[in-house]
Amino acid sequence: MICRKETMVKQKVTYTLEVNGKFILIENVPARVCGETGERFFSPATVEQLQKMIWE
What's the pTM value of the predicted model, to 2 decimals? Predict the structure, then answer.
């Protein structure tokens, strides 16, 4: 299923990542969420900041 642009909403979500068998949860991450599929989209700046936080 493909998400239509008009169904996208800005929300704060919990970003979950598994690293070396451990789960990392980061709350209140800004994302655009598809109202049809639930798929989450993050801006490049947000992804860069998340990666920096996780790997430091």
Answer: 0.80
Domain boundaries, given as residue ranges, for the chain: 5-55
Tokens 């998340």 found at: 50
Sheet holding 40-41, edge to edge: 8-19, 22-34, 40-41
Q: Exposed, middle or buried, 42 (CB in 10 Å: 0-12/13-18/19+)? A: middle
- Rounded to the nearest angstrom, the gap between the alpha carbon of residue 22 and the centroid of all alpha carbons in its chain is 18
Q: Please report, as a single letter, which amino acid is at residue 52.
A: K
pLDDT of 14-34, one tens digit each? 999 898 999 999 999 999 999
